[in-house]
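To start, an entry.
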Amino acid sequence: MIRTNAIMETLYDDLRDIARRERFRAGQPMTLQTTAVLHEAYIKLYKREDWESREHFLGTAATAIRHVLVNAALARKAAKRGDGVRAMPIGEAHDIVFSEDDRELIALGEALEELAALDAELAKLIDCRFFAGLSEAETADVMGISERTVRRRWTQARAWVHREMAGE
């Protein structure tokens, strides 16, 4: 069993790279800095102390990073809709930004929540491959399956998400 603080110290640089890549992949506007994304993910993970392995931690951290980015996009969406605040003149509203990238990230987050309800393993595979950027071999280690199964399931997962996001 591995403690969260110990594994965070060991993997901090790797997690920072993952957070940086995903923050840029999420598109504009970048209201969260890389360190903020990483620290928000850490807050989601720090109480847990039962990590089986490095791979187990990385897989869970990838999901936490996805949640941080999707939640930030949802917050920007709420701000655009007023978030319960009184209406303001249109000239003042130009500072509030909600981009197409946010819409796609929110749609991806919703699609992955649906997929997790149907097949949690496919959702975890997407978190590992897409959000954590793990290779097929690393994903196989994290999930305890063969690389061939990762390749087959990756194709299946991408097709499902594409179909969901296209509204088919």
